[in-house]
Amino acid sequence: MQRARLLIFNAALGPLDYRVPDGMEVQAGSVVVAPLGPRQIIGIVWDPERMPSETVPDAKLRPLIGLLPVPPLKPELMRLIEWTADYYCASMAAVARMVITSGGALKGPATMTEYRLTGGMPERMTPQRQAAMEALEGEQATIRELAGIAGVSEGVLRGLVNQGVLEPVEVDCDRPYPRARADFDEPRLSDDQREAADRFVAAVKAHDFAPFLLDGVTGSGKTETYFEAIAAAIEEDRQVLVLLPEIALTEAFLKRFEDRFGTAPVLWHSSLKSTERRRAWRAISSGEAQVVVGARSALFLPYANLGLIVVDEAHEVSFKQDDGVRYNARDVAVMRAHFERIPVILASATPALESLAMADQGIYEKLVLPSRFGGAQLPTIETVDLTKEKPPSQHWLAPPLVEALKDRLERGEQSLLFLNRRGYAPLTLCRHCGYRFKCPHCSAWLVEHRLSQRLACHHCGLETSPPDTCPECGESDCLVACGPGVERIADEVAEILPDARVAVVTSDTLNSPEKAAEFIAQAEGGAIDVIVGTQLVTKGFHFPELTLVGVVDADLGLEGGDLRAAERTYQQVAQVAGRAGRGSKPGEVLIQTRHPEAAVIAALAAGDRDAFYEAETEARRHAGAPPFGRWAAIIVSSEDDAEAREAANRIGATRPMLDDVQILGPAPAPMALLRGRYRYRLLINARRSANVQDVIRQWLGALNHPPGVRVGVDIDPYSF
Ligand code: ADP
Ligand code: ZN
Q1: Class of domain 380-425+484-618
Q2: Over the stretch 287-337, which tens digit does the pLDDT of each residue have?
Q3: Which segments of 60-217 are extended strands (E)?
Q4: Can you spell out the DSSP letters for 474-529?
Q5: Secondary structure letter of residue 696 according to DSSP
Q6: Is the full-model pTM beyond 0.90?
Q7: What is the third-level CATH fold of 191-369?
Q8: CATH architecture assigned to 2-100
Q9: Which residues are noted in the entry as Zn(2+) 1-binding (predicted)?
Q10: For residues 331 and 311, what is the distance between their CA atoms, to the nearest angstrom?
Q11: How far is CA 413 from the centre of its chain?
């Protein structure tokens, strides 16, 4: 009798054993359907030796039900699942869920039904139907998705289908994608670019693991350089994965991709429709998808024939996933390349210190693009000392920045103001009683958004209308906005430069590919004089007429005592500065700060990257932080504060005593309340020699907690 051990997607149930019925052919990696009680579940057949479990006697085994019509997972991907679970102290089930993203959908046929408006009217119009019909104008999706968009039940929409107001459209999820061509429009590379590209191309053809750090200043043409590696992979008939940090930024990237390869790549991100998701997943697993551009989740897909991974803006914080499996896509990308035996390119103008250290040790091959493409100069950078150059009260732009803005407007050039704060004001309070608007579910203020007339929590998504009266003292007309967000800076610009055309660019305003495309067209076409934006505008954009960048508050990121704060500030300011002077006209950057003497700010102003990295290296060495030592965090949460605190204390009380591991806390986590859960944190600082994961597993494995308590592990956390 043949047995099969399954990895199933529920960690609490553990691996389960089944009997393989006669005539069914399974192997390690096969995706199968199995009975569990009265239900059917999906599982992945695993090598029993790699996933030990109690042996169930033959007689008790139930037979597998069937095999899903998808290729078995390759051993390379199975090793990646094992490694990710092991390294990040997560369950293999949780990692596997990221691979088989749409389990149920895979069982289905290759076609799916979507619905769209016919233009017809229902026999009886209700307010609900009216609202649904307005919301669904121009949409086509499954009933469930349409219900989500319209905010009505599926029943309401089924009614509209019966009335002929919505009509079905069959969508073929196996229809092929257009083929990309390696030689569609080949650029002429500079000598530096050519040198790097040749190394990449050779590595792609060598079919072996080769990690690269592509370290090039902003505007040096990193993209064109790694495009040559993509071209080589296309010629070899192998798949390519390009990870981008922010899917809102892909618009500009997609345009360049099409110019180079003649067609768009396959996209993968969390807001794909289910038909798009199913089509992409099938094409990726069959090998039909040539180049996949995606967010970090694209890393775990079952590529049939992967030949290259590129991580662009590899230093970006958004590659770190902060709930569920807490992984860093940059590091997992390198591991995937290792298992697949293929090259991986980490591209950045401001690499993470960890990546630079790997290059210094010779583990990554570093390729440098030291100057901007086409002879453009790097911008001049100066600081504006806010303790000396004071903006008027309730204003945030100091005189030198105001003068520079006026000057650009007169010359018909573009300016960019950077402030990493969405909305109008970060805090709203009552001038009578001092009441502050706070999120009931998070340790966070509600942020006023004037454009959408909302008070919003940026952590849980809660939104309310600003009240007319204070909820505490009942006074009316008493609410005051404290501090600036980008919307308020935009107002200030409008006041100073009434003729300027101002655009606010944040994830609120650029929330769809269409809006992103529209913004890029306007900015490139000279229809915008001043862009006011968050970190969304710091990377990826190339506007030749943009000659001034103003950093409204460089100190913002430095608050809070986080060890990575300096690096993050350096990266953000260097990136946004990199938007200035990319065309033929020189760029100027003004950094507003109250601490011009701080090491980060001084290094930025001096354009001395090495000085910054040296200071940062010393700080890290001193703190035993990566790359010199290791940090990890244990986060304990519950909806009940006392329950969370007690669980954290229990964990703290059983801490192991080891020479090379130091354990701090528990203490309230930086977000002590998040989405209705109270959070406590223990921090672990270990020498490089220590096996932190084993220590944590043994320690936490010995404890049990009430069902309402969640214990999460964060290896290499971003803030500590
Ligand atoms: P980075 O990603 O390093 O900031 P980009 O790849 O965006 O730089 O390149 C900066 C600009 O130079 C872009 O407009 C790009 O199209 C252009 N460019 C770079 N390399 C070439 C090349 N070999 N031929 C023509 N244009 C290039
Ligand atoms: Zn909240």
Answers
A1: alpha beta
A2: 999 999 999 999 999 999 999 999 999 999 889 998 889 999 999 999 999
A3: 66-67, 111-117, 166-172, 210-216
A4: --BS-EEEES--HHHHHHHHHHH-TT--EEEESTTTS-SHHHHHHHHHHHHTT--S
A5: H
A6: yes
A7: Rossmann fold (3.40.50)
A8: 3-Layer(aba) Sandwich (3.40)
A9: 430, 433, 470, 473
A10: 10
A11: 32
Which atom of ligand 1 lies nearest, measured to the CA of 188?
A: 23
DSSP letter at 73 equals: P
Q: Do the beta carbons of residue 203 and residue 357 sit within 8 Å?
A: no
Q: Which CATH class is domain 629-715?
A: alpha beta
Asked whether 348 and 215 are in contact (CB, 8 A), the reply is: yes
Instruction: Report the pLDDT value the prediction gives residue 307, as an integer from 0 to 100.
Output: 98
Torsion, Cα 224 228 230 236, to 10 degrees, reads 170
Q: Given ligand 1 and candidates 369, 373, 541, 545, which is best to mutate, with the most ligand atoms within 8 Å of its CB?
A: 373
222 CA distance to ligand 1 middle (Å): 7
Token digits of residue 291? 């180049």
Phi, psi for residue 384 in degrees, rounded to 5: -115, 115
Which residue, chain included where needed, has tokens 């030990």? 52
Mapped to the 3 state alphabet, what secondary structure does 31-55 carry?
EEEEEECCEEEEEEEECHHHCCCCC
Q: Quick one: which of 125, 640, 413, 583 has its CA closest to 405?
A: 413
SS3 284: helix
The Cα 550–Cα 591 span in angstroms is: 6
Q: Which amino acid is at 164?
A: G
User: CA 4, CA 7: separation in Å to the nearest integer?
Assistant: 10
pLDDT tens per residue across span 92-112: 999 999 988 765 456 567 888
Segments making up each domain of the chain, as ranges: 2-100, 116-172, 191-369, 380-425+484-618, 427-482, 629-715
Distance (angstroms) between ligand 2 centre and the Cα of 487 equals 21
- Alpha-carbon distances of 161 from 111, 124, 135, 153, 169, rounded to whole Å: 19, 13, 16, 13, 12
Of all protein residues, whose CA lies closest to atom 2 belonging to ligand 1? 222
Ligand 1 center from residue 214 Cα (angstroms): 14
Helix or strand holding residue 134 (H, E): helix 127-135
Q: Do domains 191-369 and 380-425+484-618 have the same CATH topology?
A: yes
408 — phi, psi (to 5°)? -65, -40
Helix (H, G, I), strand (E, B) or coil at 312: strand
